[in-house]
């Protein structure tokens, strides 16, 4: 099969690799219908994170081709969506809703879903089948549920977005934009997004943003405080992962407010004195997407949300390198890749 490999920072190729096979009785093999490039894939691409001939991709939807003898909840032919963590969904941590910290977890990025086929460990705990074969125009939204929608949703829940709340969003990538969608659907009164890009501002408004600010960092936080009677937002979504973004998030929150942080943290350090003096709640990390998948798939299937709009570029898998370049240069918000050659 064809599979995307990052040989070194800035170099993405498509290689021929062996098709995956069932290794454990709980495995499933899927034919990947659609996969995508994640903002987190840009960290190794930019050399911020080590990379050496690494298979890429952790977001996926597809059709089950084969299952191990212990798989019960999905069967050959099912269209499935899975989280970017493979998890049992039965251990104490999973049952508490923190599947991304499952005691038996495997990150799908180590398997690489930017490929024609993928082995999904712990299939029963990881995959959710849709009610039928989706229309082609639903596929991008279903794919978004695999990570960016689930991650944005978790960020909004962690930030306790809801009725009566003002939510500030730091980060206008796919996760930040879908955090806006989540906060809106969770009933937030006001959603303030920090963005300087016209296309992203427009999508943020479509997803439910009420206010756009162009300031960043301390100035961004200051602006949010001015807009909220000097208090700060009740809820803040941090979807970047840098020191500046985390500080903007904490300083945008009111005392006693909640920050949901889901940007993959890179060299962020938070002074204890700041946490002590602000009284802000911080909750985040890798999102337990599996917790939200059944609800999110139902909303997508009913066409009440359209998170697939974050994909503004679609390319065949063979042209993955162009997709990485487009996202690196911020010419694309998020790139969808289609492995099938005849599409
Ligand atoms: Zn991702
Ligand atoms: Zn578990």
Report on this model:
30% of the residues lie in helices and 25% in strands. With 343 residues, it is α/β, with parallel strands linked by helices. The protein has two domains: 2-147 and 288-338, Quinone Oxidoreductase, Chain A, domain 1; 151-284, Rossmann fold (3-Layer(aba) Sandwich). Strands 3, 5, 6, 9, 10, 17 and 18 form a seven-stranded mixed beta sheet that branches. Strands 13-12-11-14-15-16 form a six-stranded parallel beta sheet, with helices on both faces. The model has no long low-confidence stretch (mean pLDDT 96). Bound molecules: zinc ion (ZN) (2 copies). The site of one zinc ion (ZN) has 9 residues, from helix 2.
How many domains? The number is 2
CATH architecture tag of the largest domain: Alpha-Beta Complex
The CATH superfamily of the largest domain is known as Medium-chain alcohol dehydrogenases, catalytic domain
Helical segment count: 12
The level of helicity is 25-40%
Distance between the termini: 16 Å
**Small-molecule binders:** zinc ion
Topology pattern, helix = H, strand = E: EEEHEEEEHEEHEHHEHEHEHEHEHEHEHE
Structural class: alpha/beta
Annotation, overall tally of beta strands: 18
CATH topology of the largest domain: Quinone Oxidoreductase, Chain A, domain 1
Low-confidence stretches: none
Give the biggest beta sheet: 7 strands, mixed
What is the CATH class designation of the largest domain?
Alpha Beta
Radius of gyration, in angstroms, nearest whole number: 19 Å
Beta fraction: 25-35%
Shape: globular
On the 0 to 100 scale, the average pLDDT is 96
């Amino acid at each position: 099969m064809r599979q995307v490999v990052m040989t070194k920072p800035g170099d993405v190729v498509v290689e021929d690799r062996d098709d995956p096979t069932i290794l454990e009785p709980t495995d499933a093999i899927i034919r990947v219908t659609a996969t995508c490039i994640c903002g987190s894939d840009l960290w190794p691409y930019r050399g911020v994170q080590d990379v050496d001939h690494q298979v890429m991709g952790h977001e996926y939807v597809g059709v089950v081709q084969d299952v191990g003898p212990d798989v019960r909840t999905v069967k050959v032919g099912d269209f499935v969506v899975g989280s970017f963590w493979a998890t049992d969904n039965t251990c104490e941590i999973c049952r508490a809703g923190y599947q991304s910290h499952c005691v038996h977890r495997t990150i799908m990025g180590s398997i690489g879903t930017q490929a024609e086929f993928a082995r999904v460990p712990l299939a029963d705990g990881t995959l959710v089948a849709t009610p039928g074969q989706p229309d082609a125009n639903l596929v991008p939204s279903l794919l978004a549920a695999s990570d960016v929608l689930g991650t944005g949703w978790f960020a909004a829940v962690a930030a306790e977005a809801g009725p009566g709340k003002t939510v500030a969003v730091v980060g206008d990538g796919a996760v930040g934009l879908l955090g806006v969608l989540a906060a809106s659907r969770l009933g937030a009164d006001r959603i303030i997004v920090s963005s300087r890009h016209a296309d992203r501002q427009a999508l943020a408004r479509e997803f439910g943003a009420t206010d756009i600010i162009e300031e960043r960092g301390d100035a961004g936080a200051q602006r949010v405080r001015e807009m909220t009677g000097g208090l700060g937002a009740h809820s803040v979504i941090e979807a970047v992962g840098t020191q500046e973004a985390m500080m903007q998030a904490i300083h945008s929150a009111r005392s006693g407010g909640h920050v949901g942080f889901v940007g993959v943290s890179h060299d962020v350090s938070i002074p204890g004195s700041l946490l002590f003096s602000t009284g802000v709640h911080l909750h985040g990390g890798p999102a337990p997407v599996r917790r939200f998948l059944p609800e999110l798939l139902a909303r997508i299937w009913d066409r009440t949300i359209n998170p697939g709009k974050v994909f503004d570029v679609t390319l065949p898998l063979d042209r993955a390198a162009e997709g990485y370049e487009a996202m690196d240069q911020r010419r694309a918000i998020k790139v969808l890749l289609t492995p099938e050659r005849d599409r």
